[in-house]
Amino acid sequence: MTDTATPPAGVHEDGSPERLQIDTIRTLSMDAVQAANSGHPGTPMALAPVGWTLWTQFLRYDPGAPQWPNRDRFVLSVGHASMLLYSLLHLAGVEEVDGSGKKTGAPAVSLDDIRQFRQLGSKTPGHPEYRHTTGVETTTGPLGQGCGNSVGMAIAERWFAARYNRPGFTLFDHDVYALSGDGDMMEGVSAEAASLAGHLKLSNLCWLYDSNHISIEGGTDLAFDEDVGKRFEAYGWNVIHVDDANDVGALKAAVQTFRDTNDRPTFIVVHSVIGWGSPRAGTEKAHGEPLGAENVAKTKEAYGWPVDRDFYIPDGVQEGFEGAVRGRGQKAREEWEATFAKYRDAFPAEAAELDHILADTLPEGWDADIPMFDADAKGVASRDAGGKVLNAIAKRVPWLLGGSADLAPSTKTDIKGAGSFEAGNYAGANFHFGVREHGMGAVVNGMTLSHLRGYGSTFLVFLDYMRAPVRLSALMEIGAVWVYTHDSIGVGEDGPTHQPIEHLATMRAIPGLDTIRPCDANEVAAAWRAVMQDGSTPAALVLSRQALPTLDRTKYASADGLAKGGYVLASGEGIPDVILIATGSEVSLAVEAYEQLTAEGVNARVVSMPSWYRYERQDEAYKESVLPGDVIARVAIEMAGEIGWDRYTGMKGKIIAMSTFGASAPIAKLQDKYGFTVDNVVKVAKGLLG
Predict the structure, then answer these.
(1) Are 319 and 298 in contact (CB under 8 A)?
(2) d(Cα 212, Cα 224) in Å, to the nearest integer?
(3) Is 129 considered catalytic here?
(4) What values do phi and psi take at 380, rounded to 5?
(5) How much is the pTM?
(6) Ramachandran region of residue 648, left (φ > 0), alpha (ψ -120 to 50) or beta?
(7) How far apart are the C-alpha atoms of 478 and 452, rounded to whole Å?
(8) 109-141 burial, b if ≥16 CB within 10 A, otherwise e?
(9) What value, to the nearest 5°, has the Cα angle with vertex 54 and ends 49 and 59?
(10) How far is CA 299 from CA 85, 244, 283, 286, 496, in A?
(11) Residue 403's closest CA among 351, 481, 455?
């Protein structure tokens, strides 16, 4: 690591347009970090040549149409290097669009936005945020997530191409680039995603790995010394090394090799010196802190930059950079639109499907085949009902597709007759993510960011392996569907390792995640209907392994009440004496207790509360009609942790829930041990009534 401002070998501050554009990216980045007194200047400075090469020489991207469906994707998995992306978006002249895709007339990232880096309300937050800043393809920051998202995006392109391309009509052939670093390579999620991408032979996927040997604590040799390139060769990737990140000729050759490779993804190892040009180059300061005014001045002097000018863009730099990107991208986009117009005439049904997909809308009659389930005391497991409903929807919404972490026979999430998505069949709708829950979550997010309705499934207890992508789906407001089965101690003999306890509470704590635990087959149907209609909200469907009675909806309220999150399922006349509130498998238990209480002259009510998220969005009048404030005798029943239930029971109510881990035993014995019996519910309810 050098401690001088001397350029590395092969780098010349010659004032050429290329070098001026690269150094503008560098100086904008370090000026923004310095002004904010917060951020990471080193990586944007070191990778400026990589960003310049991709955007000006290869990226098919029209700054005037940043949502063009066949654009190449650029994912900054190293989200802490956000100033690199903001500088690229500014210099490319990307135009801002609003939530409906209409241009606002403003730039996606103006120079003033860069000056407001990391400030409240700015379009340049510390880590890039999808929906917040036009041109940001996904929210990154948690390392490795962007890598996984890029695999999902590459999968989406392959599926679109297989389903919609026709001879003479190539609508989808874009590439996906992800910029990653040492931290990404240490995170397990990137390994899971890379292994899957290699298996699927996604030749439209290119990761550029910034190998700079620096992390927050210091040199990566403190904890990380493997040969990453050899690891990716073992995954089945094409591995290319670029010895110097400043060698744009070598970078061009590497990217061109990727574009010429058609049988596997490409991994380009780019060796860089973090914070090149700074007197502190290669130190943790350049990685995670502003350089300081003195070092900024010395670095600018090394670049031949005006030392006394901040956020300086030399004449011709933006015009040259934008011209290179727009000149290539606009032509490609206009040709694509002309092709699509002809395609619409030749293949109207397929074009109509694409219109719905790209607008995130549903076709007329999409829910016509959703089954209704007859009352049945024995009933079916909600996972089985979920599989039937999923298949009914997928027939009419073929872009609803996904799979499981090696558990489809258990989660019932396979789509009948749709085939498997594999290297030899990219038109398949069933995805085999393998035992890679974390990677599955990140990949499903990438698919959903590409306008597919992606879903991923596993047992609820394994949510812990994929919490980060679930949280990010909520942060990004994308309609990913997370299907979790084996939802409680009802798993029985599998024991406490497979019996979720705290998981419902932790999911309900994620802002914007619709966690739904249906009580029977008809609530499952209502849940899927509600989820599909809200494409900007991710949902977790929490389903049972054991059979649940299918309630008689001629006697009890319609399952359509699920759309409001909580509803009165059964009630006597007038204001009740006691209210039983439950979710999932415990609702039928509450109904049995209700019937016994009613027979004994107690005016009881049962409230099914499948989605706290939806219930809290209702107005106060509705909530008062379900849970009257004057009724303080309330019992909540759920075979999970009790945290949060006091918001509905009040301080004087009771909660029948789990305060310990479960045990390995038949379900009936577990229900008796932990108090999930009719006798106990009735006893607790009567106790509240004195």
Answers:
(1) no
(2) 12
(3) no
(4) -135, 155
(5) 0.95
(6) alpha
(7) 10
(8) beeebbbbbbeeebbbbbbbbbeebbbbbbbbb
(9) 160
(10) 21, 19, 15, 12, 58
(11) 455
**Rounded CA separation 149/194 (Å):** 11
Q: Which CATH architecture has domain 17-333?
A: 3-Layer(aba) Sandwich (3.40)
Per-residue CA distances from 663 to 586, 636, 660, 669 (Å): 18, 22, 9, 10
Q: What is the pLDDT of residues 388-447, one digit of tens each?
A: 999 999 999 999 999 999 999 999 999 999 999 999 999 999 999 999 999 999 999 999
Q: Where are the domains of the chain?
A: 17-333, 376-549, 564-688
Other CB atoms within 10 Å distance of the CB of residue 315 = 8
Give the helix ranges, DSSP H, for 165-206: 182-186, 188-200
Q: Strand 604-608 and strand 430-432: pairing?
A: unpaired
Residue 378, number of CB atoms within 10 A of its CB: 8
Q: What is the pLDDT of residue 8?
A: 44
Q: How many CB atoms lie within 10 A of CB 182?
A: 21
Residue 674 phi/psi, 5-degree rounding, is: -100, 5
Q: What is the DSSP string of 306-340?
A: -TT-SS---TTHHHHHHHHHHHHHHHHHHHHHHHH
Q: What is the pLDDT of residue 287?
A: 53
Q: What is the pLDDT of residues 137-196, one digit of tens each?
A: 999 999 999 999 999 999 999 999 999 999 999 999 999 999 999 999 999 999 999 999
| Closest C-alpha among 340, 333, 451 to residue 60 | 333
Which residues are bridge partners to 456 per DSSP? 403, 482
Q: Please determine whether the domains at 17-333 and 376-549 fall in the same fold group of CATH.
A: yes
Provide the 3-class DSSP secondary structure of residue 485.
strand
pLDDT of residue 216: 66
DSSP label of 69 = T
Residue 19, CB half-sphere, CA atoms under 13 Å: how many? 13
Among residues 95, 129, 137, 437, which one is catalytic? Answer: 437
Q: Does the structure show a pLDDT above 60 at 1? A: no
Separation between Cα atoms, residue 532 and residue 400, nearest integer Å: 9
Integer Cα distance of 63 and 528 in angstroms: 37
Helix (H, G, I), strand (E, B) or coil at 400: strand
Render pLDDT for 90-109 as a digit per residue (tens, 0 to 9): 999 999 999 889 999 999 99
For residues 28 and 47, what is the distance between their CA atoms, to the nearest angstrom?
13
Tokens of 248: 């744009």
pLDDT for 565 beyond 80: yes
CATH fold for domain 376-549: Rossmann fold (3.40.50)
Question: In angstroms, how far apart are the furthest CA atoms of the chain?
Answer: 92
Residue pLDDT, tens place only, 600-610: 999 999 999 99
Contacts of 295 (CB under 8 A, 6+ apart): 278, 279, 280
- Residue 504: the pLDDT is 98
Q: Which CATH number fits domain 564-688: 3.20.19.10, 3.40.50.920, 3.40.1260.10, 3.50.50.60?
A: 3.40.50.920
Under 8 Å between Cβ of 583 and 634: no
The span from the CA of 687 to the CA of 513, in Å, is: 35
